[in-house]
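**Backbone geometry record:**
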Amino acid sequence: MTNAYGVPSEVGGWPPSEAEDVECPYCRGVNTERIGYVDEAQTVECHICHDCETDFPVNVDIPF
């Protein structure tokens, strides 16, 4: 992730972003975005792929 000047956050002493790129199960692209949750317990996220314009569920790993 970069700031407004294009400098990566690692250069400023901040750790890298923990957001992982989710791979689309249909086209194997990573141009995806989380659009919400499938269930109320928020254990399954709903992502959309901007390449093939399909939404798909992704299980959330809850660390205990």
In short: The chain has no helices and three strands. Residues 7 and 64 are 35 Å apart (CA to CA). The chain has a mean pLDDT of 81.
